[in-house]
Prior knowledge:
single chain; mainly beta; 8-stranded antiparallel beta sheet
Amino acid sequence: MAFIELTPRKVASDSNSKSKVRIYFSRRKNKEEKTVGYALMIRIGIDLADKIGIKPGDKVSFSYDDENKRSWLIKKTNNLAGYTLGGRSNASSFTLQLTWSLFEPEESELNIRYVVSDIYQGGIKIDARLPE
C-alpha cells in the first residue's frame, strides 16, 4: 500500500469575478436531516468591495427592499451590531454570511451563481432574481 499526497491547487476563476457578486443559500439541517432553516452566503469581488471601501473585518449593514425581498443593499457601517465581512485581504472575494428567514429559497437558488449588482447610494445593490 502506498499513500499519495494531494496538494491544494489554485482554482482558475473568471477574470471578471473580482468585480462581481456570487450568492447561494445553504440548508441548515437538524439531526434527523430535516431542513430547519437557511444560511445566505454572499461573495463580493475584491474590486467591487474596494469601490465602496470595505475589507475583511469591516462591519456592513444588510438591507432588503420591502416590495422585493430579493433586492438587497450592502453598505459599510460604523454600527457594531452590523455583520462582519469575512475573508483574507489577498483573496479575490470577501464573504458575508447570515441566517436567512425572509423567504424559503427556491431549489434553483441553492446553487452558487453570479447575480446582477451595482454601486448604489454608497453601497452594493444586488438583484438576486437576475443572473449575471
